[in-house]
Design goal:
Length: 247
Amino acid sequence: MKHLFISGILQLTLAPPTSTTYQLGTKTCTTKFTEKKNAVATLLSLHDNENTAIATYESLATNIRFSLLELQQENQRLFIYQENGKDYIFDPNRIFSDEGIKKTLKPYDANTASKIKDFAAAIFKAFVLKNPNKYLISIHNNTDEGPLSIRDYIKPNKYQNEAKGVFVAPNMDEDDFFLVTEQEDFDYLKMHKQNVVLQSDKPTDDGSLSVYCEKNNIPYINIEAQNEHTKIQKEMMKIIYTLLKTK
């Protein structure tokens, strides 16, 4: 597996044994690591306001063995880098490329962008060190009103060019779906009648982890479900656990 680490990793400050604190100017961000013995993989949660995904993970039966790395900053989706009394806002799932940082950082500042690039490298390295699997698996939540569902990947919608395959299951909510980078995973989930998107080989560079993984040949799965769809997201996690156990 090829990894392209971004240079200039931040100095880490150790908090309690399962946590690591990162300094973002005068603000802080914490990663919380929940480890399960003999885990098949580690799940990654980047948006701190997507609490259904965390509650779902915590409700898993003990025989579904995933560890979890959570990125936390005051229960907010968008994070703050604070310096000289000024707030710089960014989406933590849009910082894994220079182009992504340029698009997400508000207001844009080259010096701050460089520091957020270092932060992205530190987070990615922390995850890789705690992940026993070659797969990178993200967990996310959306809302019933938008802005994302599997329908967005079907013509004539906004992400139609971001997918080379889409399967819409007849009995699933369109907000509950998988996004994968591997054809065999797409075929497996389609066979199990799950909503699934196969990401394009050349997706738009938005700085997200799915695009980073596509560019660097890292197998990726996103388990995406609507807020409060705990039961559904639990079943989705179980399906991925079964998939990984076959590899």
